[in-house]
Design goal:
There is one protein chain. The chain is mainly α and about 800 residues long. The chain is about 60% helix and about 5% strand. It has a four-stranded mixed β-sheet. The protein has a three-stranded mixed β-sheet with strand order 5-6-9. α9 links the parallel β5 and β6. It is globular and about 90 Å long.
Length: about 800
C-alpha cells in the first residue's frame, strides 16, 4: 500500500527533476543554435571526463544470474513490505531534504560567480559530498558473517531508512569485508525459503548466517570519494544496480574494491536516490542563483539565455579556443580549395600530379604525427589521405581524360585485396586475445609472479613481456602488463620506469615471430619473410637488444620494501573454462604459421579459422547463460580498436598508390645512390621509426624494393623488421606501445627521452650488430676478402708474408 501511495504521489506531482528537464527542453527549443553550440563547447570539458569508459563498466564474469550487482533488472525490483526503505513518511522526507538543502545553500552562497551548475555541484559533485548530504550517516548496517538473517533484516528495518543495506564482515577481522546484503539478496533469500518443504525447514532459513546470501566483495562496484555524481549514475545504470560503495582504495579502471589482508576502508554506501536528490537540489539552487545574478530579468528563460551568452564569451577569450578556431578555419579553407581544384580539372594538376601526390602524402603524414596537436584522429587523416592520393592518381596522373581508367580500377582492387589480408588478420588476432583476457586467462602467467625484489621483478617482467609479445601483439601485451604493474608496483615513479621497460621488451619481442608485431606481420603476409628463418635468425638479435636495454635501465631501479605494499591478490586457480579458453586461444595463435606453411593459404585465413574456433567454443561453454554475454566473441568485437584497423587500411592504401605510380621506386633509386649500403638504409629507417609510425615506414620500404631483386628472407627484409620494430622504442612516440604507455601511466615525452631513450638506443644498435655478425657467420662471409668482417687489406698482408717465406 505504501508503494502504491508513493507511486500515486509521483504521478500526481511532477518531481523537481521533471520540472527542470521540461525547463531545459523549452530553452533548447527557443535558444538560437549558435548559442547552444557555444554553451555545450564550454561545458563539455567539465562533463566529458566525468563518465567512465563503457569497457570498464562490465559485469564480472564470475557473477551469478541473480546477483544484484550484475542483473539488469534488479533496479526495477519492487520494495516488499517497506523492508529496506520506509515509504510514505512525507514529513520526515521533507525534514531531511530541508536539512540537506541547507548544507547545499551554504556551499553555493560562498561562490562568487553564479553559474548554471558550479564545478563540484550537480552532476560534478563528489561522492563524498553525496554521502555527507544524504543524512544517512554511512548508509549501511555493519553485520558479522555469523549474524542470523532475521537479525540483520530487523536491524535494517529499525534504522528507519537511514541504512538500507548491510555490509557483512568476517567474524575474526572486522575490517575484512565479505560482501553486501541488499534487497535483491533478500528477495533471493525469500525465494529459497518459499521452496522449503516444511515449517521447520522454513524457520531454519531465518537463523541461517547472513553470509550465505550475500553478494561477494570481489563483485561489488565501488567509487572513490573524489569520483562524481555522473560517474555514480553511469555505473549504477550500466550495471543495473541501486547501490555503490565509497571507499579509500578503489581500482578506478574496473570500479572494484582493492582487497588486501589489511581489510577494506569503506566510507559508506550511496544509492540512486541519494545521488539524484542532491543533483536536483543543486540544479534548483542554480536557478535561484541566476535570479540573484540577473535581478532585472524576471523571466527564467531569459536569465538562462544571458548566462549562456556569458559562457560563450568566456570560452571565446581562452587561448585554447583560439587554437581550435584557427584549426577549424584552416580546415574549412583547405577543404574548400581541394574541392575547387578537383572541379576545375586544371591542366596544371595533370602536368604536376606527381608533386601533388607527394604533397598530399606529406600533409597527411604531418596530420598523423601531430595528432594530439590538431586533435584529428589519425585514422580519419589516413583514410582522407588515401582517398586523395587515389583520386589524384586515377584522374590526373598521366591521364588527360580526368576519369579513372580500367587499369587503375584493377590496381585499386589488387591493392585493396592485399591490404584486406592484414586488416582481417589483425581483426581476428585482436578478438582472440580479447576473449582470452575476458576469461582472465592471463592469470596462468600472473600467478607465477611472487618476488619482492624490485630488480628481480624488473628482469622477470621484461622477459615475460618479451615472450608474450612474440605470440600476442605488442600493444595488447603492453596494456596487460601495465595493468598488472598497477597492482605490483605501488610507487608512481617506479611504475613509469617499469612501464617504459615493458615498451622496450614488447617491441623487441614482437620482432622475431611473424605474429608478434604488425610490421613483421606485414612483411610475412607479403612474402618478404617466412616463418622459420624469421624465428631462427631474429631471435638472438632481439634477445640481445632486450638484454642490453634492460642492463642499462635496471641501474635506475632502487631496491626498497615498496613491493610489500603490492595490491596483487593472492594467486588463485583459474576456473577450468578459463584454462580451456586460454590454451585454445594460444594454440590458435601458434597454429597460424603452421597452417600457412602446410596449406599454402594466406595467414589471415588461418587466423579467421582460429577466431571461428574460439567463437564456437565460447558459445558452447556459455550456452544458455545470458548473463555471460560479455564473455562471448560479439562482446569482444565491440571492444576492438576499430579506429586502429582503419588506420592501417588508410596507410597501406596510401603506400600502395605511391607504389603503383612508381614514386617509391624513384625514392629507392635515390637512397641507393646516396647511401653506401642497404645496412645503413635499414638502420636509418629504424631511427626514423622513433619519430614516425613504423607501419607506413615499412609499407613504404616494401614498395621501394622488389621481391625479384631481394628474395624472401633476404638480409634486407630481416634487418628492416629488426630495425623498424626495435627502433620505435628509442622515443615514446615511436610505437603504439609507447603511445599506450603515455595514456596509461601519464608518461611525457621529455621524461622518457631523459630516462629511457639512451638505454633503448644501446639495445637497438646492439641488436643490429648482433644480426650483422650472425649473418656473416651463417653466410660464411666472416673471412670473405671482398665483403667480410676481416678486411681485404688484412688478407693481402697475410699473403705477402707467406710469399716472402716468413713462417706464420
Amino acid at each position: 500500500e505504501q508503494t502504491k501511495a508513493t507511486q500515486h504521489n509521483r504521478k500526481s506531482h511532477p518531481s523537481t527533476m521533471q520540472r527542470f528537464v521540461l525547463l531545459l527542453l523549452t530553452v533548447l527549443v527557443t535558444v538560437p543554435p549558435s548559442v547552444v553550440v557555444a554553451f555545450t563547447t564550454t561545458t563539455r570539458k567539465r562533463t566529458s571526463a566525468l563518465l567512465p569508459p563503457s569497457s570498464f563498466l562490465k559485469s564480472p564474469s564470475s557473477s551469478s544470474s541473480d546477483s544484484p550487482w550484475t542483473s539488469s533488472s534488479s533496479s526495477a525490483l519492487p520494495m516488499i513490505g517497506g523492508f529496506f526503505r520506509k515509504g510514505g513518511d512525507k514529513e520526515e522526507d521533507e525534514k531531511k531534504s530541508a536539512a540537506a538543502a541547507a548544507v547545499v545553500v551554504g556551499d553555493v552562497t560562498s561562490i562568487d560567480t553564479a553559474t548554471l551548475t558550479p564545478a563540484g555541484f550537480g552532476f560534478s559533485t563528489p561522492t563524498s559530498r553525496i554521502l555527507q548530504s544524504s543524512g544517512r550517516n554511512s548508509g549501511y548496517y555493519k553485520a558479522s558473517a555469523s549474524d542470523p538473517v532475521v537479525n540483520v533484516i530487523e536491524a535494517i528495518t529499525a534504522a528507519g531508512g537511514l541504512q538500507d543495506v548491510a555490509l557483512v564482515f568476517d567474524d575474526d577481522n572486522n575490517n575484512n569485508l565479505l560482501g553486501i546484503f541488499t534487497e535483491s539478496d533478500y528477495i533471493r533469500f525469500s525465494s529459497a525459503r518459499s521452496k522449503a518443504s516444511s515449517e521447520e525447514e522454513a524457520a531454519s532459513f531465518l537463523v541461517a548466517p547472513v553470509s550465505n546470501y550475500i553478494t561477494p566483495a570481489d563483485q561489488l562496484l565501488a567509487l572513490s570519494a573524489n569520483d562524481t555524481a555522473s560517474q555514480a549514475i553511469a555505473l549504477m545504470k550500466t550495471n543495473g544496480v541501486r547501490h555503490v560503495l565509497i571507499a579509500t582504495k578503489v581500482n578506478s579502471k574496473q570500479n572494484r574494491l582493492i582487497l588486501s589482508s589489511e581489510g577494506v576502508d569503506v566510507l559508506g554506501v550511496i544509492n540512486m536516490q541519494d545521488v539524484m536528490s542532491i543533483v536536483q537540489r543543486d540544479e534548483r539552487l542554480s536557478l535561484t542563483s541566476l535570479a540573484k545574478k540577473y535581478p532585472t530579468i524576471s523571466n527564467p528563460l531569459e536569465q538562462m539565455k544571458e548566462e549562456q551568452k556569458s559562457f560563450a564569451n568566456r570560452a571565446a577569450n581562452t587561448p585554447e579556443q583560439g587554437k581550435k578556431d584557427l584549426i577549424r578555419t584552416g580546415t574549412a579553407i583547405f577543404s574548400g580549395l581541394c574541392i575547387a581544384a578537383f572541379l576545375s580539372q586544371s591542366t596544371y594538376l595533370h602536368d604536376h600530379a606527381d608533386i601533388l601526390m607527394i604533397g598530399i602524402f606529406v600533409l597527411g603524414y604531418i596530420g598523423i604525427i601531430f595528432e594530439e596537436v590538431f586533435e584529428f584522429n589519425k585514422a580519419a587523416v589516413a583514410l582522407l589521405m588515401s582517398t586523395g592520393l587515389w583520386i589524384t592518381y586515377g584522374d590526373y596522373y598521366q591521364n588527360p581524360s580526368g576519369i579513372a581508367s580500367p587499369s587503375v580500377l584493377s590496381q585499386l582492387g589488387e591493392q585493396l585485396a592485399e591490404v584486406s589480408d592484414i586488416c582481417f588478420f589483425l581483426l581476428a588476432a585482436s578478438t582472440i586475445v580479447e576473449v582470452v583476457d575476458a576469461h582472465q586467462g592471463f592469470k596462468v602467467v600472473t600467478n607465477q609472479i611472487k618476488t619482492t625484489s624490485k630488480k628481480q621483478l624488473f628482469w622477470t617482467i621484461g622477459f615475460l613481456t618479451f615472450f608474450l609479445s612474440a605470440i600476442l601483439n605488442n600493444l595488447t601485451v603492453t596494456i596487460v602488463m601495465c595493468s598488472l604493474l598497477k597492482k605490483l608496483v605501488p610507487k608512481d615513479d617506479d611504475r613509469r620506469l617499469f612501464g617504459a621497460m615493458v615498451v622496450v621488451a614488447a617491441n623487441a619481442g614482437g620482432v622475431w615471430t611473424p605474429i608478434g608485431d604488425v610490421t613483421t606481420t606485414m612483411l610475412w603476409i607479403n612474402d618478404q619473410l617466412s616463418t622459420l628463418p624469421t624465428i631462427t635468425e631474429l631471435f638472438l638479435p632481439s634477445t640481445v637488444c632486450l638484454v642490453a636495454s634492460l642492463a642499462y635501465l635496471v641501474n635506475q631501479v632502487e631496491e626498497d620494501a615498496s613491493l610489500e605494499e603490492s595490491t596483487l591478490p593472492e594467486p588463485t586457480d583459474l576456473a577450468p573454462r578459463g584454462k580451456v579458453v586460454f590454451w585454445t586461444g594460444i594454440a590458435c595463435l601458434l597454429a597460424v604459421p603452421v597452417f600457412a606453411e602446410l596449406t599454402g593459404l594466406p595467414p589471415y585465413l588461418a587466423m579467421l579459422t582460429g577466431l571461428g574456433v574460439m567463437w564456437t567454443l565460447t558459445d558452447i561453454i556459455h550456452m544458455g547463460e545470458e548473463e555471460d554475454d560479455a564473455l562471448k566473441v560479439p562482446a569482444a568485437l565491440s571492444k576492438l580498436d576499430t579506429a586502429g584497423i582503419l588506420f592501417f587500411l588508410g596507410i597501406l592504401m596510401s603506400i600502395g598508390v605511391l607504389d603503383k605510380s612508381g614514386l617509391l621506386k624513384e625514392l629507392a633509386v635515390f637512397l641507393d645512390t646516396h647511401l653506401p649500403s642497404l645496412d645503413i638504409i635499414a638502420t636509418v629507417i629504424g631511427l626514423a621509426s622513433a619519430l614516425i609510425d613504423n607501419v607506413p615506414l615499412v609499407a613504404a620500404t616494401m614498395g621501394m624494393y622488389d621481391l625479384n631483386q631481394y628474395a624472401t628472407d633476404d638480409k634486407l627484409w630481416q634487418l628492416i623488421a629488426l630495425c623498424a620494430g626495435t627502433g620505435g622504442s628509442i622515443l615514446v612516440i615511436g610505437s603504439a606501445s609507447g603511445v599506450a604507455l603515455m595514456g596509461l601511466e601519464k608518461v611525457d615525452f621529455l621524461w622518457y627521452a631523459r630516462k629511457v631513450s639512451v638505454g633503448a638506443a644501446i639495445g637497438y644498435f646492439a641488436g643490429i650488430a648482433t644480426y650483422l655478425a650472425q649473418n656473416a657467420v651463417l653466410s660464411g662471409s666472416m673471412f670473405d676478402g671482398s665483403s667480410g668482417l676481416v678486411s681485404q687489406a688484412a688478407i693481402a698482408t697475410v699473403d705477402a708474408i707467406q710469399t716472402s717465406g716468413v713462417a706464420v
